[in-house]
Amino acid sequence: MKKRNILLLGLILSIVMPYSAFAMHIAEGFLSPFWCIVYFILSAPFFFLGVRAINKKTYNNKDLKMLLALVAAFCFVLSALKLPSVSGSSSHATGTALGAILFGPFAMTVIASLV
Fold it and tell me: Is pLDDT larger for residue 41 or for residue 94?
């Protein structure tokens, strides 16, 4: 019983006392060009590995291109749906897990960067 009361108190406090968490999305123009270049260099190998993985998988089976397009559309639609959050902001699902299961994580880096 005592553990349940502590959990209930924690839930009530998290709803009543929201605080700003300066995380998640970065505003446009906030990063300096130096950090943009650094992050581009760090992410470029994964993007090119993803392009190569997509080419390998779709070379022999052209029907997989249609499935890949459907996965990309699914990711786009899920990311467009905003779900209200407890603290007053919104959150959204991305759908990259389904694509990563079907095509692998490298292919989904390409899809996620396009979506």
Answer: 41
